[in-house]
């Protein structure tokens, strides 16, 4: 066989492969060239019609790229201004307390708080205080609930001091209480970071070691039994209706701040039930000695080095000995106020905080909600 023929047979497969590769590369080049054209065309189209990056109420959207775009910002503001106010109807005053008409101190805008029941059909939320609800439900709204409206059950008393009403079990859309697992949690207080504008903590003048102010006296309460044993080992200054000494708010705050330690003994022991008994001493510069839920639960709310828990001691005498020791050792005593370098106490305004936090919640959560099993959740 001639050598030229043999060479052709040898090279023929390679030639076919080369043609296939060249064809593939040509098609690929044509595809990407067209794609780049379309991309450029699409980009130019978007430049003609600017996009608003954040829609009203969408707090999770990034604000990057909004600088130097005043036209877009104006569009956003205009849309937000057209949103109607959120109406929260306070159906009944809690224990007769007045509720503020504005939520400005909470930095919550476009809220209308009202007691005008003529606005029932327009209200986005209706606040119903448990302790004011009659057992026969006669004082609840009679008209049908509008589709967009949410009824909010709220209560700041512990289950032990709140009567269970079976008919309320599946009546509400939302809950609001001191419990952190409420839809709208409103504890008796909370800690906020200090700001440069806040005054530095100054220790009040102390002329008493241990104090206790109490009105609700029951010999079966754990706190009463604990006190009766503890007073044998340390002087406890006592005040309040239980000891025949009524006082006004000014006297109340003055006494607490003048004591090194305050017995913040709750009248009932429930998860998350930390009342003003701990937040007032912390705010007034006194170390609270707490009796309530577990230490771990307290530390869900406040720093562990800001209070003394009775459960850390095996007997009332052991606790008394510890307080006597701290009374003599200023360095260790003042360490209980280290938290004031980082935080400050903010107390809740009964009723007003519930109404404003309800407004905030309704503005952020406009979908359908229902709360089932209220009685088991709260009373167990």
From TrEMBL:
MF (Gene Ontology): 4-galactosyl-N-acetylglucosaminide 3-alpha-L-fucosyltransferase activity
Gene3D superfamilies registered for this protein in UniProt: Glycosyl transferase family 10, C-terminal domain (3.40.50.11660)
Enzyme Commission identifier(s): 2.4.1.-
Segments traversing the membrane: 14-32
Matches recorded under SUPFAM superfamilies: UDP-Glycosyltransferase/glycogen phosphorylase
Family according to the record: Belongs to the glycosyltransferase 10 family.
Descriptive protein name: Fucosyltransferase
Organism (species): Sparus aurata
This protein's encoding gene: FUT9
């Amino acid at each position: 066989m001639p050598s030229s023929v043999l060479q052709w047979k040898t090279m023929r497969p390679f030639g076919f492969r080369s043609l296939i590769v060249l064809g593939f590369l040509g098609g690929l080049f044509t595809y990407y060239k067209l794609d780049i054209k379309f991309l450029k065309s699409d980009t130019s189209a978007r430049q003609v019609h600017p996009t608003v990056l954040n829609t009203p109420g969408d707090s999770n959207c990034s604000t990057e790229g909004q600088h130097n775009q005043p036209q877009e910002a104006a569009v956003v503001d205009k849309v937000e201004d057209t949103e109607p106010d959120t109406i929260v109807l306070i159906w009944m005053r809690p224990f007769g307390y007045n509720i503020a008409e504005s939520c400005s101190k909470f930095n919550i805008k476009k809220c209308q708080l009202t007691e005008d029941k003529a606005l029932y059909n327009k209200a986005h939320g209706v606040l119903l205080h448990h302790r004011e609800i009659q057992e026969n439900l006669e004082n609840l709204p009679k008209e049908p609930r509008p589709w967009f409206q949410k009824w909010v059950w709220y209560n700041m008393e512990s289950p032990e001091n709140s009567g269970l009403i079976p008919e309320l079990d599946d009546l509400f859309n939302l809950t609001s209480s001191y419990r952190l697992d409420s839809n709208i949690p409103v504890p008796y207080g909370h800690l906020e970071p200090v700001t440069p504008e806040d005054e530095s903590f100054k220790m009040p003048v102390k002329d008493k070691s241990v104090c206790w102010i109490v009105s609700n006296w029951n010999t079966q309460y754990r706190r009463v039994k604990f006190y009766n044993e503890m007073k044998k080992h340390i002087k406890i200054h006592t005040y309040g209706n239980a000891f025949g000494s009524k006082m006004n708010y000014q006297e109340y705050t003055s006494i607490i701040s003048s004591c090194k330690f305050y017995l913040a003994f709750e009248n009932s022991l429930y998860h998350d039930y930390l009342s003003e008994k701990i937040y007032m001493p912390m705010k007034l510069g006194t170390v609270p000695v707490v009796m309530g839920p577990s230490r771990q639960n307290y530390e869900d709310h406040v720093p562990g080095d800001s209070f003394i828990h009775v459960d850390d001691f095996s007997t009332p005498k052991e606790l008394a000995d510890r307080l006597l020791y701290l009374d003599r050792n200023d360095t260790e005593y003042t360490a209980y106020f280290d938290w004031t370098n980082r935080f400050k106490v903010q107390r809740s305004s009964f009723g007003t905080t519930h109404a404003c936090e309800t407004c905030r919640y309704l503005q952020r959560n406009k979908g359908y909600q229902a709360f089932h099993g209220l009685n088991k959740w709260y009373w167990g």
